[in-house]
Design goal:
Largest sheet: none
Number of strands: 0
Oligomer: single chain
Length: 70
C-alpha cells in the first residue's frame, strides 16, 4: 500500500466511525427525555432495576435518564 492509499483508508475509517457515532447518539436519544423509551417503560410499570438490566445501564443512570439528568 502506498502513502496515498494509506491516507485514503484512514480517512474512510474515520468517516465510517463518525457515521457510527452519530447513529449511536441517535439511539441514546431514544432512551432519554419525557417521551423516551426509559420513561415509557416506567410508565408501563417496569421497575428501575429491570429497565437497567435490559438497557445495560446502571440503576442510577436509568433514574437519571428518567429524570432528565445528564
Amino acid at each position: 500500500m502506498d502513502e496515498h492509499e494509506a491516507l485514503e483508508r484512514i480517512a474512510a475509517n474515520r468517516h465510517k466511525r463518525d457515521e457510527h457515532t452519530a447513529a449511536i447518539a441517535a439511539l441514546d436519544e431514544e432512551l432519554a427525555g419525557p417521551d423516551g423509551l426509559v420513561r415509557a417503560a416506567f410508565d408501563a410499570g417496569a421497575t428501575g432495576p429491570r429497565i437497567a438490566s435490559v438497557a445495560r445501564l446502571s440503576k442510577q443512570r436509568v433514574y437519571q435518564v428518567r429524570d432528565g439528568v445528564r
